[in-house]
Amino acid sequence: MHGTRSLPPLLISVAVHAVLLGMLAAFRFNLLDQQADVAVETVFTEERIQEEFAQDLQIDTTPSESLRLTAGGVQTTSPGAAPGASAARTKIEQSDALQQPEFRFNIADLEMPGLDMLGEDLGEGEVSGEVGARVEGYGAAMGRLTHELLRVMRNQQVIACWLFDESNSLKDDRKEIRDQFHKIYEELNIANERTKKGRYHSLETMIYSFGEGLHPITRKPTADLKQIRDAIDKVPVDETGHEYTFGAISSVIDEHSKAAARSNRKLVIILLTDEVGDDAEMLEEVIAKAQRFKSPLYVLGREAVFGYPYAHVRWINPESGIHHWVRVNRGPETAFPEALQYDGFRGRHDAYSSGFGPYAQVRLVRESGGIFFLLASDEANLVGRSVHERLQRKFDDVAMKEYEPLLLDKREYARRRDASEFRKTIWSVILALNPHIDDQLVIRWHHYPIDHAEFEKEGRKNFDRGVRAMAMINQQLAVLERVRPLRAQEARQRWRAAFDLLNAQLIACRVREFQYLLSMDKHVREKPEPQQPDTNYWDLNYTSRMLEPDEQQVKKTNVDYDQLEQQRQHALELYDQVIRDHPETPWAMVAAAEKRLGFGMTFHERFWDPRYFEEEERGAVPKF
Fold this sequence. Notes:
Layout: H1 3-15, H2 18-25, E1 55-57, E2 74-75, H3 108-111, H4 115-121, E3 127-128, E4 130-135, H5 138-153, E5 157-165, H6 171-180, H7 182-195, E6 203-210, E7 214-216, H8 225-233, H9 245-262, E8 265-272, H10 283-292, E9 297-301, E10 310-316, E11 323-329, H11 359-368, E12 371-375, E13 382-383, H12 389-392, H13 397-400, H14 410-419, H15 421-432, E14 448-449, H16 452-482, H17 493-526, E15 537-543, H18 551-557, H19 561-581, H20 586-596, E16 600-606, H21 615-619
Parallel strand pairs: 1-4, 4-12, 5-6, 5-8, 8-9, 9-12
Antiparallel strand pairs: 2-3, 6-7, 10-11, 10-13, 14-15, 15-16
């Protein structure tokens, strides 16, 4: 087929989409002249919620020579609490502007008594869990766990049940925990000698692993360090890919809580995982059990991807050497995602940091009185856009206080969100443009055929999807525009930032979608030949150079290059506004990263190992 004969079908495809023509004709949006709303904000707003400050922990991994006890969470001012701890929380409910039952102001990190005073005066008490103890590796986490166990053991003996995720991705992590386990028991031997004379085994340990099922590896509680280490080495790899995390926790509580109570022992559960789990619907049930039996949960986990339920890890087939990206359930940091799930072509493939752990695990920790240890060390197999920035950046903890997630149960979270027209509208836009719900939003990114006829066939299908996606993006921008005046009334910075970034992203997506249509039309007309002999596919890619619509395309769409450039500049200005208004936060990080992406779209040639598409190869990919 000659190039001049292949042009009309694609242009006709544009013409028959009346919605597209109306939309593209409206590219002269009046958004360029709009000014940002400015709001004067007071800390006495209705929904300002102060959670615990995250703390960086740089704890030596060598055994301690003395007992220094520190509380895991925030000591309440309830009767019986130590006198010195009451300064850790200030009650200001008397203010008429603060009649909000969830309001808590924690200044423990600013005026916390020293370790000597805590070790002398502070018992276990009544503890609200820490939601973000950032640690540089397992050694620091194990050191802090030792202090937590010592604190609890001042009043009771302890049964510590360790739950190890059987995921492939945690093999190295389990080995590191095994190598660090001595710190707990060597320090606890000091505790037994100095504070538990005549009482042996103040701490006993059970080792479990879980995947599709729960597997006890030690048959009974033990204090034998070698036996514990050997048990960790025996943790199997679950090949099903199922991780019933909350079911495993629930079963352990059922098995040990009553016996622990009868023997006046404290049941403590310590979870090692890098995923949320497949049964997070059990969260509230598990919280109720943990609270009933006063069993704190400690989680050694990873940071949630910002506003996104998934992360991707690289797995290399040891036989073929072929790389695969495997999706895992990592988050998000909120009860429901508060960010766009779409990059304009497909579901997100980024690894932007959220600054917080996954919602379900963090809520469980807070409600049970434990600690979420946010492991900040490198994840060698994590892949995705901005993955290397995860270690290079550190959000400002004070700034992030304004952006903390609401750790409510999901029903209450949804009720509050939907009670606000502003928040409900943002959520409706995120939902409408979710490619995991609407797969017709997905536009092929990889593996376009080299054969011209096959390329045109595949291109036509994705061209039509691009037309539909642009129409939907334009509709959702209009929806956002209707609630723009409400932004100034929004009390929480988190939702203001969500609006600001979402607006910038959709305008950028609209430009890139149009560039995709131009690039597809150009490729079909010109029929380029690959320059490399081994090229077997065309892949889509961003480029800094935007295509200029030709005369025919301008006539059909009423869009010229100047209008495209105006829209590109507007998107960049909105990204800059996000960076200025929400500095040192995930929203600013995403805006800066997306600014660096080109707004033009092009096809580039690519070699894909044919074995990648073979059933045997695809079937070899493990489930994480």
